[in-house]
User: What shape does this take?
Amino acid sequence: MKNVVELTEDAGLLLTIENFSGKFSPFITSDDFFEAQREIPQLRLTYDNGNAACGENPVDSFKKCADYVVHAHFKDWDVINHQEEGFREMSDGRYYRPALIEEGNLDTAACWKAMKNYGYKDYVNIEYENNKYPADKAIKKVTEYLKIL
Assistant: This one.
């Protein structure tokens, strides 16, 4: 990434990294981000509330990194403490399955509020990785929910 940052700067772009879920992901928590940023001070964060939840409280994670967040992703998970079909283990030892925002275990409202209180006004990607609803209905449902927060 040190080599890439020179290219992004020359092109007038920002280099970001997403906190990414996964049992072996090197970038999940705010501490992971800051460790990378110590080596690459120009590095910024594509914050993902659902991925942050796999390693720390998503609201706390955002608050710690807020000054460096330049893009955001929102998702939700069903979370259980044992292995079950359709769930995948994450680095915190729990098992996760994609859910529609507001239907899973994450406190999306608290994270949304923290971002609004901070003054975040940039883009938010809505991620839905399940097939319970057709994509258009899922996005409409989530958009309506986020509007009332």
Q: What stands out?
A: The chain has one domain: 2-148. The radius of gyration is 16 Å. The chain is about 40% helix and 20% strand. The longest strand covers residues 69-74.
